[in-house]
Structure formats: structure tokens, C-alpha cells
Amino acid sequence: MEQTRMSFPREGLGFDLPPCGGGQREACPAVAEPARRPSLAPRGGHDLPRYCSFTPHPARRLADLPHKGGGQRLSRFLGLTGFGLCLLLAGCHPQTLSPSVRPMPAQLPTMPRGTIEPDVTGANISPAALPPVRPTQYRRLTAVECRKLAIQNAPLADDLDSHPDNQTSHACSLKKRSDQAQLSRLVRGYAADDLRNRAAGDALELYYKLATAEGQFDHTSSAHGILRTQLALAEKAIKAGAADRADVERIRRQLLELESQLAKLEAGIASLNAGLAGHLGLDPADQTPIWPADTLTVSGDVPDVEQSVRTALQCRPDLNMLRTLATSENSGQLAKAVVTGINPLLGTKESANPLFAPLISFMAVVKKEPTQAEAKMQRQLLGALATRERQADAEVRAAVAMVRGNRLAVAAKAAEVRNWQARVAEAEKRVAAGVAGAEGELALAKVELLKARGELIQAVAEYQISDVKLRQAMGLLVRE
Fold it and tell me: Model-level pTM?
């Protein structure tokens, strides 16, 4: 069929459309049957109607199409488009954000490879005449007092015990409210005990570390005095014209190393005092240091692994909290809060329509069966409880092994101390017999003995810390 050109009326475009392939789809419903329009709703067993492209019939004009006001709408659209083009040409276009300008990269000068050498001219390379001196007045503290004060000042524990949900109003004596208050007291009480148990363990660890630092400071200071006396005798002999048999430079180097250790010990003691004051609720304005008054001892009893695990599974507050929630019928928001605390992604959104929530709960009470959300929450609690029990088992077994290992380390350090004591006694006999060079051997043996005693103090303190961690893993610190 011959292709034709169509012209819009004067109120339309005012120009002709290019020829289109007319007559190729004369059976198209859009032209043959203008009153029928394909439905968008799917019909059973049939696909949606397939739209065909509109091709005007050569004998029809656009104004004769079966759409009312089509020419007016097209004319209005083209008029608005032309107006927008005029505004754009006139410069009235929306402002666009200018692209961010990155700063120019910094340029560093180039140089050949050099050497790194420290400048120690400002350091005092001569040993001090006297070692640093510790204060004479202290605040006395025992391990039992440390544990009690840490429990009393555990952060947020008292807030959990005094939570408003733990109290039952006298005006409302419903059994459900009373049961919920009782459950809140149990769950929040176990949570508070867990915080207190951890706080006591942290405070006792600082306590024994402070005892280690104070004991090592005394032994290091005594070694410094011995070496300082030895250095003075060697320098006096050199001035008198004798040979340098004591190796003066070696003694000076040892003195500087001891002074460095003393400075580090002083810094550690100050930090441990500040940490203990915070854990125990002491007055921060009181700068009097704390003195650990307990004697560092090693128990002769070896803890039993299986008995320790059974005690932990029975006494740990975190396990008892999860058991209480998993076996309670009214855990509700408490269980949701605990599960969300384990992992925030386990929390679920509320129902889309909150009006249905009371109805669902009522139907669950009538059927005496938990809702789907409650059953899911219970499964999550049981899963968390099983995971925590495995963790508790592993922590207790590791703590028992650490106690045994540290107990053997104490035995080894004690044997080393006895060895150096024997050497000191032998050197004293050589000095009494007038053997040449025996004084230097005696001084060296005494310094090594003091060093071994400091290491023994550290070994015993580490044993005590491992025992504290075992009691903490078993949940006993808050029960003692």
C-alpha cells in the first residue's frame, strides 16, 4: 500500500510527520476496534494480551483518532517543551554542583639513602649515686578486702538489682505481674552477679600485679646498692694505680640497666594504684599508694578438672540467667533483650499491625501453646545456653592447666633461688679465707640472688592470678 504523509491541524504541530509504514497492520485492535482496549488483568490459563505498535491508517488523520482532546494535550506539551527550551537558551537552567576539587598531592624532596643513628648526648649516661626511694606510708589492703570492695563497687550491678521492673505495685496484685517481677529479679540478679564476679577478678589481678611490682622494686633497689658499692671500690682502686680487674664499664652498664628497671617499675606501680583505686571506689584525691598486705603463697592442693567443670556449670551466673529465661513462660521482653545483647542481628521487628499482638497472645494462652515468636526465642536461648556451657567448660579446663603450669614454674624458680643462696654462701667462705677476687664473685652472686628472688615473686603472683581466673571461670568470686 502506498505510504502517505499526515498533517496535523493548525492548532497542533504545524508540520508534517514523516511517512510511516501504513497498511501493514490493518488488523491491529487499536485501529480496527477503537472501543476495545486490552485488559491488564491476567486471565486464567492465558498470557497477557500482546500490544501491537500503532500505525495510522493512511485514510485517517490524527485529529480523527478516538482519544478525546489528544491534539490539545499534544499542543500543550509541545508548547511547554518550547518554553523550557527558551529558558534553557536564555541561561535559566538549574544550578549543578561543581565537582569536588582534590588537593594537589604533597611533594617531598628526594635524597640518597642515609643511616639512622641515635643522638644520646642529652642522656645522663652516668649511674645515679642512690636508687629512687619509695614512700614510707601506704594504705593497707588485703586480698579479701580487695574482692569485697570490688564487688560493692561493680559498675551497673546495683542498678540491675534496683531496676523498677523488679518491684510489684501494691495497687496491681495480678499474678502475672507478680511472676514477671520475680523473673525480673532473678534474671537481673544473675546479670548483676556476673558483673560483680568479673569486677572482683579484674581487681584481684591488679592486686597481685601490684604486689609483684613492689617486691621487685625492693630487690632491684638492693641490687643497685650492691653494684654501686662495687663500682666505688673499683674506681678507688684504679685511682690508686691498680689494674681494672672488676671491669668498671660492665658495672656501670649493669647499674644503668637496673635504674631503667626501677623507673619502669615506678611507672607500673603508679598505674596499678590508679586502676585499683577506680575498681575499689577509693578517693582519687588521696595519693597515698596501696600496699598489698597478704603473703604470697602457693597452695599444696591441685584442682580437679572434672569437679571444677561441674562447679562452673552449676554456679556461673551467666549460665543460670540463660537457664532461667529458657525455662520461663513469661520471659518476653527480658529474653528478647538478652538475645539481642548476644547478637543484635538476632532481634526481630514487631508485627506490622500491633493490634494483632494481644490477639495472638490471647490465642496462645487459650491453646496453652507458645506462639511462633516465643518458640523461636526459646530455641535461641537454648542454643546460647549450650554455647556458653561449652565456653565455660573450655575456660575452666584452660584455667586449671594454667594453675598447674604456674605451680611448676614456682617450684623451678624456688630451686634457682636455693642454688644462688648456696653460691652466695660459698663466695662468703672464699672472702673469709682471703682468696683474691672473691669480693667481686660475692657481689655478683648476691645480685643474681636478688634477681632470682624477684623472678620468684613474679612466678608466685602469676600462680595467684591464675587461681583467681579459675575461681572467676567457676563463678565463685561473687559467692565467697
Answer: 0.72
